[in-house]
Amino acid sequence: MSQKRRHFTAKFKSDLVLELLKGEKDLHAIAIENSIQPNLLRNWKKEFLDKASVVFDDSREEHIREKLDEERKEKEAYAKKVGQLTMQVDWLKKKSTELLGPDYESKFSPKPFDD
Predict the structure, then answer these.
(1) Are 69 and 62 in contact (CB under 8 A)?
(2) Count of the separate structural domains present in the chain
(3) Alpha carbon of 109 to those of 15, 34, 90: distances in Å?
(4) DSSP string covering 20-45, please?
(5) Which residues constitute the domain of residue 85?
(6) 57: which DSSP letter?
(7) 33-76: per-residue pLDDT in tens?
(8) Can you tell me whether residue 1 is helix, strand or coil?
């Protein structure tokens, strides 16, 4: 029977790579201590070093800020639309009651959204 594939957290990976970069232990010793393949640790180290420049990348943070602003504006627009539609529904209910009487709902087919 084959073994299940193991998943490692980002924290676990980064801790091992940082331990490797400190140079106190070699790659094989760290791999054996943590029951992983040396190639896997080598790949994590390469990925870590390749993506190290992202930490200092200001454009990424600016992009996230812009996206949050867009989402906030979109949310405000939706809230405004919901408020407008709620007012229209309330007005229509009031006018229907005035024109057709309090039992106006019974004169129409069932509401499509009521379960």
Answers:
(1) no
(2) 2
(3) 65, 68, 19
(4) HHHTSS-HHHHHHHTT--HHHHHHHH
(5) 57-106
(6) -
(7) 999 999 999 999 999 999 888 777 777 778 888 999 999 999 99
(8) coil
Q: Please give the average per-residue pLDDT across 81-97, as a whole number.
A: 92
Same domain, 67 and 47: no
Q: Does pLDDT of 115 surpass 60?
A: no
Contact 37, 31 (CB under 8 A): yes
Q: Widest CA span of the chain, in angstroms?
A: 86
H-only helix segments in 4-101 = 10-22, 27-33, 38-50, 58-100
Q: What is the chain's Cα-based Rg?
A: 30
**Which tokens hold the place of 96?**
């229907």
DSSP annotation of 4 reads: P
Cα 28 vs. chain centroid, distance in angstroms? 36
